[in-house]
């Protein structure tokens, strides 16, 4: 089953890891998709707000990410760009540690898990590495995140993927709706709208 058209907007409620909410808006472009989002949260006694704009091409390869953050640490901004060969620049500077990554993964966002799922289009039983440029919520530091997605059997109206990010000791099953957006990310977020 391939994905249906995206809704104009979606929202997630954060769970156990933090208290908060994420809202996104999808804008179709002639050469891809623009995603505007905002997350507010309280985590370990610290409040933060992360706003973002992502652009992906028709194949769901990330092209650009602009991220801003406000917390007790102050206000920060960062910009990530990637070329068609998978070479990244962070704030205009080459970032070779990210080369080969095709997705951006925002710590503040459940939505960004949709990027590799759409891009990979895995068949049931298939598994793929999906390293990503991982952006931290409060300080916007950027690091490489090695992760894998393995498509498990579907259930009515849902695609299921076994997701692993060993550096965070995460190994769980994610459920996605017919548009390819996360419905349930155990312990992190659930779709609210």
Secondary-structure map with pairings?
Blueprint: E1 9-14, E2 19-29, E3 32-43, E4 46-57, E5 62-71, E6 74-82, E7 88-90, E8 93-94, E9 103-106, H1 114-120, E10 127-129, E11 132-135, E12 142-145, E13 148-151, E14 159-165, E15 170-176, E16 182-185, E17 189-191
Parallel strand pairs: 9-11
Antiparallel strand pairs: 1-2, 1-17, 2-3, 3-4, 4-5, 5-6, 6-7, 7-8, 10-13, 11-12, 13-14, 14-15, 15-16, 16-17
Pfam families: Glycolipid_bind (PF06475)
Organism: Streptomyces daqingensis
Protein name: Glycolipid-binding domain-containing protein
Question: How would you characterize this protein structure?
Answer:
This protein has 193 residues and is mainly β. The protein has one domain (9-191). It has one helix at residues 114-120; strands spanning 9-14, 19-29, 32-43, 46-57, 62-71, 74-82, 88-90, 93-94, 103-106, 127-129, 132-135, 142-145, 148-151, 159-165, 170-176, 182-185, 189-191. The protein has a 14-stranded antiparallel beta sheet, with helices on one face. A 3-stranded mixed beta sheet has the order 9-11-12, with no helix packed on it. It is globular and about 45 Å long. It starts with 8 loop residues before the first strand and ends with a strand. The relative contact order is 0.18.
Keywords for this structure?
single chain; 193 residues; mainly beta; 14-stranded antiparallel beta sheet; 3-stranded mixed beta sheet; 4% helix; Glycolipid-bd_prot_put
């Amino acid at each position: 089953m391939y994905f249906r058209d995206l809704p104009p907007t979606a929202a997630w409620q954060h769970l156990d890891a933090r208290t908060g909410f994420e809202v996104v808006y999808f804008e179709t472009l002639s050469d891809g998709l623009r995603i505007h989002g905002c997350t507010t949260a309280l985590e370990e006694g610290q409040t933060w707000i992360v706003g973002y704009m992502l652009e992906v091409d028709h194949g769901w390869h990330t092209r650009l990410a602009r991220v801003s953050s406000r917390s007790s640490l102050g206000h920060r901004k960062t910009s990530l760009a990637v070329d068609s060969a998978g070479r990244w620049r962070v704030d205009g500077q080459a970032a070779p540690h990210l080369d080969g990554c095709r997705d951006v993964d925002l710590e503040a966002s459940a939505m960004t898990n949709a990027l590799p799922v759409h891009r990979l289009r895995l068949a049931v039983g298939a598994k793929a590495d999906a390293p990503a440029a991982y952006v931290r919520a409060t300080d916007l530091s950027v690091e490489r995140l090695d992760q894998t997605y393995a498509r498990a059997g579907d259930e009515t109206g849902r695609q299921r993927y076994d997701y692993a990010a060993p550096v965070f000791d995460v190994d769980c099953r994610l459920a996605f709706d017919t548009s390819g957006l996360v419905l349930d990310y155990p312990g992190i977020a659930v779709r609210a709208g």
